[in-house]
Each structure stands twice: as C-alpha cells, then as structure tokens.
C-alpha cells in the first residue's frame, strides 16, 4: 500500500512538471502574482505597524482630558 502511494505521488509530481514545462507562461504568471501578493502583504503590514506606533507615540505625549466637566 505504501509503495502505491509513493508511486502515485511521484506520478503526480512528474505530471505537474510536464505541465509546467508545457505551459511556461502560466508558471511565470503564477510566480509574478505570488511575488506581487507577498509585496502587497509586507507593505500593508509594515504600514499598519508604523501607523500604530506613531499613534501610540502621539497619544502618550498628550494629557488625558475629562469629557464630563
């Protein structure tokens, strides 16, 4: 049973590599899109962190005020 699973995984990988070689443009587009997605994610995370840090630095310098009086 274990040999059958290993053989089927090997055949899937072999078929996948054949597909990548056959359709190179799809592979290139997938790589470009994955780099673009990771770039957008890293920019948004770093921007969120910087905005949050600036907000906390600004609010820590201000004196709290009372809305009631």
Shape: elongated
- Proportion in β-strands: under 5%
Task: Count every helix, treating DSSP H or I runs of 4 or more residues as helices.
Answer: 2
Helix-strand topology string: HH
What radius of gyration results from the CA coordinates?
26 Å
Strand runs, count? 0
| Spans of at least 5 consecutive residues with low confidence | none
Give the helix level as a range of percent. over 70%
Q: Major beta sheet, specifics? A: none
Structural class: mainly alpha
User: What is the typical, i.e. mean, pLDDT?
Assistant: 86
Distance between the termini: 78 Å
Describe the fold and architecture:
The protein has 69 residues and is mainly α. It has a domain at 21-47. The chain has two helices and no strands. It has helices at residues 2-22, 24-61. The termini are far apart.
Summarize the structure.
By secondary structure, this protein is mainly α. It has 2 helices and no strands. The chain starts with a helix and ends in an 8-residue tail after the last helix.
What descriptors fit this protein?
69 residues; mainly alpha; elongated
Which helices and strands occur, and which strands form pairs?
Layout (H helix, E strand, L loop, with lengths): L1 H21 L1 H38 L8
């Amino acid at each position: 049973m274990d040999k059958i699973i290993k053989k089927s995984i090997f055949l899937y990988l072999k078929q996948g590599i054949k597909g990548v070689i056959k359709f190179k443009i799809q592979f290139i587009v997938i790589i470009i899109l994955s780099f673009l997605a990771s770039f957008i994610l890293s920019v948004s995370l770093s921007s969120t962190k910087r905005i949050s840090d600036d907000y906390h630095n600004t609010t820590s310098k201000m004196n709290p005020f009372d809305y009631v009086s």
